[in-house]
Amino acid sequence: MPTLRRDSFTLLRELMRWRVALVLSVLIFVLMIVLGTVNTRLDLPDTAQLAWIVLAIAGACIAALLTLPRHLGGTIFFVSIALLLVGVMAFGLHHGRPMQHWAYIFPPVIVFLVRSDRALVAMIAFGVYAAAMIAPLIPAIDVIRFASGYGLLVCFMFTYALLQERAAVMLRYHSDHDALSNCLNRRTFNEAVEQLAGPRGTAEACTFLLIDIDYFKAINDLHGHLAGDRIITQVAAELGRALAPGTPLFRYGGEEFSVLLLDRGLDDGRAVAEELRAAIADADFQGVPVTISIGVAHWRRGEGSITATLDRADRALYEAKRSGRNRVVADAPLA
Ligand SMILES: Nc1nc2c(ncn2[C@@H]2O[C@H](COP(=O)(O)OP(=O)(O)OP(=O)(O)O)[C@@H](O)[C@H]2O)c(=O)[nH]1
């Protein structure tokens, strides 16, 4: 049996890197066309020449990104950046102004060493420092050229940092959420329970709602698995709408959801569960009758383990099913 070479998180990260690399390479490509044209018109042939060199590197990078396997995206991009910096420095050396071009190495270094917001300040500060240092040594036009080249590189590196941050937010979302229902996933549930109710947890009490769609196997058998999937998605959306904003809703298993009510008692839990049950019973699922059963259990620090509470919620849910479904059963508080 073939084994999975890369997990979904890695695949997603590689795809994000590839996208970031492509967007930035296209950005550089377009910028260099503008810079090359403007400098040619201004009769600054050496600066125009540099723009054409960078344009060629960006073009090669785009071609490689589009033709080679996507997981190489990050490597292709960084090889291109390295080539670009070496090209810029060699160009500076060739034209007798090596000093200021060495400064170009700093924006990428800084952006990889510190976070994006501080990176911007550090890059600008270094640029101003470098420009001030070289100003007495070289003609004003070269200081302006340096400042504009450095400024472009800073914008470009800052965009890279911002895109990386957006990618990280997306990755976080995908790792915490279930793809079908958009609810928080079971792993996040386990983590939340550990953080709140574990031995070093922060919560003193909470109430669990365990929610299960009734006769879901029959719904699948009658209407097909795709219709079943749509119903799971819609049930999640209806539950989310019925809950107070900020209340976490988890996909606990196949057609099971759970709600975690922090610092709320069993009566509150029963009332919320009743509202959820009614919301689903009243919703229109394109003609398919859909109801849910809910088991409720309360946990208080020092009164038994969290696992035992989840077991009680499960038993309450079983009782709700056994006594006819489309109902809420709340576990009795521990004596
Ligand atoms: N379409 C779809 N079906 C799922 C998914 N996850 C679980 N199921 C199905 O959900 C069904 C659950 O069936 P059962 O556990 O027997 O329970 P039930 O038919 O809902 O009956 P009760 O819970 O007793 O009311 C199984 O047939 C699973 O295959 C999913 O993501 N999509």
TrEMBL record:
It comes from Arenimonas terrae. GO terms for cellular component: plasma membrane. The chain crosses the membrane at residues 20-38, 50-68, 75-93, 119-138, 144-163. Coiled coil: none annotated. Its cofactor is Mg(2+). One of its GO terms (biological process) is cell adhesion involved in single-species biofilm formation. Its EC number is 2.7.7.65. This is diguanylate cyclase. It holds the Pfam family GGDEF. Residues 204-333 form the GGDEF domain.
